[in-house]
Write a structure and sequence with these properties.
The protein is mainly alpha-helical. It has helices at residues 3-44, 50-75, 80-131, 168-188, 210-225; strands at 147-150, 155-158, 197-200, 232-235.
Amino acid sequence: MDIDGQIVESKRLQGKRVEKLEEAKKSATGLKSRMTRAMKQFDELRNASVDGKTALVSEKSRELGRIDARLDELSKFSDLRKQINDLKEAKELASTEVTKLRNAIEALELARETRRSVVKTEIASNTKRVLEKDLKEHNDFEALDNFDFSFEDDWFAINGDPNITASASGMVVVKNSLFLGMLLASLKDHQMMYPRFLLLDNVEDKGMVGDRVRNFQKAIADLMNQESAPHQIIMTTSTLNPALAREDYIVGPSYSKQNRTLRIQGGALGA
């Protein structure tokens, strides 16, 4: 049962106990009055005849016994008020804790949504920076006023339109620009839990023309050269921009039909 349910149940039980206490008080008052009258009658019997005294004393004794038993029973309710007060204090403490927890949860949710909004804005802004460097003659966007996205609902949009491109190659550019936007945002915002590492191995998919691929490579290099925070990008390509054919960018040999990635030594398949 949750805290709210416990509070409601405690209130209901307290109400019943209060009702019983009030009934017990009324009953005790009536019994005390009866006892007073009985004691008065008992005193009057002292001057009565012996036989009359005996019969009346016997009757009144039984009545007094019943009254005593009832008073003993009612005395058990003497702690009821204390129990009710203890329950009231416990309820007040529980209500206070519930209020504190609710306030803390609301504050955390507000902080989370605020933080989410800040990070999303940073990513969208940096993605827009990357997209703006796409070749004009190849991009599908015409005007680029703003970029938006949702990881939860799996969509992104340019100028509020989720149907941002009709070409598969344009979609490749947008997706990889979003990845770069995340990396760029993380280099500025050190609270982002992002590894500052990016592997791009599909930039040349979906019919990307060579000029657009090479331009995208240069755009990445230009943007990342402006960053001082440590990071790493690994990008596979068969269409390298000549301006990037430098030792500080290239790792390992280039492969061709003459220099294949898999080399089988002579005689290795013999026997």
